[in-house]
């Protein structure tokens, strides 16, 4: 049997290469802490039926035209997508987890496009299993991995722009630390080692750590968005794991 393998993908610059690899035996875990995966998981916790991540605004609008019952959610430059970008309609929701309330999303299917998070998910679409994770449901994600012990685990950080994002590296580091015993004797990438070593330095106050993150500073500087940061670094508040199915639809895992 081959040695277990643990990797961390730190930046969007690696997405193209990732999407070209044979991932048929890999389990990928995608993090976009600020804020796409946090928002997706919050929506599912509040009763959303499913989320359809798409890369482009035009894809989302086309799906809405085919099915008017869909909700449109997403952002560009951190702000809700408006008619000037779609050419026709405002999106129903932005990318703030606080928007995805039960009153708005219960029983609904949401089409979502964000700058990086949906790109990261698309890059992993050929993996055997794709998990969607955040600090909110990190324990559930950890338990799924510890129970199944995948031979090849890839933690994918969505990043900010084309750069690594501190918040995603911290989440990846937290997961590395929790599953380390399964991979320590195997093939562990330097990025996984880096993430695992950085997380303990900042884990005691993740909100303070966000002040050192580019995306964290941007959100904290906006009075309308700063409360998102506090929500996004809460830990272990949601008890289910989340997957992106082969169809590309994001749902809760039973």
Outline the structure in words:
It is globular and about 55 Å long. The longest helix has 18 residues, at 166-183. α7 (138-148) runs parallel beside α8. It has helices at 15-20, 36-45, 57-66, 83-86, 102-105, 117-123, 138-148, 166-183, 190-202, 206-210, 214-220, 226-232; strands spanning 5-9, 27-31, 50-53, 71-76, 79-80, 109-113, 129-133, 152-157, 187-188, 242-244, 250-252. The chain contains twelve helices and eleven strands. It has 254 residues and is an alpha/beta fold. The protein has a single domain, classed as Alpha-Beta Complex (putative 2-phosphosulfolactate phosphatase). The model has no long low-confidence stretch (mean pLDDT 96). The strands form two sheets. A seven-stranded mixed sheet has the order 9-1-8-2-7-10-11, sandwiched between helices.
Strand content: 15-25%
Please give the order of strands in the largest beta sheet.
Answer: 9-1-8-2-7-10-11
Taking all Cα atoms into account, the compactness measure Rg is: 17 Å
Q: How many domains is the backbone divided into?
A: 1
DSSP summary: helix tally: 12
Number-wise, the strands total 11
Biggest sheet overview: 7 strands, mixed
Structural class: alpha/beta
Question: Mean pLDDT, as a whole number?
Answer: 96
Terminal residue distance: 30 Å
CATH superfamily: ComB-like
User: How would the global form be characterised?
Assistant: globular
CATH topology: putative 2-phosphosulfolactate phosphatase
**SSE string, helices as H and strands as E:** EHEHEHEEHHEHEHEHEHHHHEE
Instruction: Name the helicity range.
Output: 40-55%
Low-confidence stretches: none
Looking at the overall shape, the CATH architecture is Alpha-Beta Complex
CATH class: Alpha Beta
